[in-house]
């Protein structure tokens, strides 16, 4: 059965994501994607152009996944306090699947994200929670705190263990991101004056 162009693009991105999760960035090649879905290299190139174009599309695909997961997580916060730990797990899960390595590589190659503001709902809910807690502070501080958290999570999957080792954390403990992520959650709550869970 012949795929529509949209079905082909979706199949290509899903195959590229599977390869990224299984083998890291080096595993995502036009040839490997084509082979995985029974398409020719030229067929993949027809939909995405070069490998670089495919990787940019894959990063955007991952960004949409993070946005969807964040929106779903935040939707449950409306009548209760923000679940910072859950938010961290949600974002980290996608980056841990190879998207962190992909984002770092594309940025190192000169690609710039135009910025989508997909964490804006998080900023707004955290800022509202701050105001209800009696420590409103400037909205700019809330934005910077969320940006710092996002930066830490994006880099942790690729560099976190090395950064922890550089601070004297033992080899075995450095490989476990959980304590670092808990620290980030506590730091964010403290910096913004949010109630503890």
UniProtKB/TrEMBL annotation:
<dbReference type="GO" id="GO:0000976">
    <property type="term" value="F:transcription cis-regulatory region binding"/>
</dbReference>
<keyword id="KW-0805">Transcription regulation</keyword>
<dbReference type="InterPro" id="IPR050109">
    <property type="entry name" value="HTH-type_TetR-like_transc_reg"/>
</dbReference>
<dbReference type="GO" id="GO:0003700">
    <property type="term" value="F:DNA-binding transcription factor activity"/>
</dbReference>
<dbReference type="InterPro" id="IPR009057">
    <property type="entry name" value="Homeodomain-like_sf"/>
</dbReference>
<keyword id="KW-0804">Transcription</keyword>
<dbReference type="InterPro" id="IPR001647">
    <property type="entry name" value="HTH_TetR"/>
</dbReference>
<protein>
    <submittedName>
        <fullName>TetR/AcrR family transcriptional regulator</fullName>
    </submittedName>
</protein>
<keyword id="KW-0238">DNA-binding</keyword>
<feature type="DNA-binding region" description="H-T-H motif">
    <location>
        <begin position="29"/>
        <end position="48"/>
    </location>
</feature>
<feature type="domain" description="HTH tetR-type">
    <location>
        <begin position="6"/>
        <end position="66"/>
    </location>
</feature>
<dbReference type="Pfam" id="PF00440">
    <property type="entry name" value="TetR_N"/>
</dbReference>
């Amino acid at each position: 059965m012949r795929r529509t162009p949209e079905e082909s693009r979706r199949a290509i991105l899903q195959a590229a994501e599977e390869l990224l999760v299984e083998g890291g960035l080096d595993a995502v090649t036009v040839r490997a994607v084509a082979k995985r879905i029974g398409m020719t290299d030229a067929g993949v190139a027809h939909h995405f152009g070069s490998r670089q174009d495919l990787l940019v599309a894959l990063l955007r695909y991952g960004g949409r996944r993070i946005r969807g997961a964040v929106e779903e997580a935040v939707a449950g916060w409306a009548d209760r306090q923000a679940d910072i730990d859950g938010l961290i797990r949600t974002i980290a899960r996608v980056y841990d699947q190879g998207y962190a390595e992909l984002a770092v590589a594309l940025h190192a190659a000169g690609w710039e994200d135009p910025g989508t503001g997909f964490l804006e709902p998080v900023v707004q809910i955290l800022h509202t929670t701050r105001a209800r807690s009696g420590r409103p502070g400037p909205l700019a501080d809330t934005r910077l705190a969320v940006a710092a958290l996002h930066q830490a999570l994006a880099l942790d999957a690729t560099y976190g263990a090395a950064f922890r080792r550089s601070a004297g954390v033992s080899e075995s403990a450095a490989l476990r991101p959980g304590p670092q992520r808990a620290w980030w959650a506590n730091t964010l709550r403290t910096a913004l004056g949010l109630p503890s869970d």
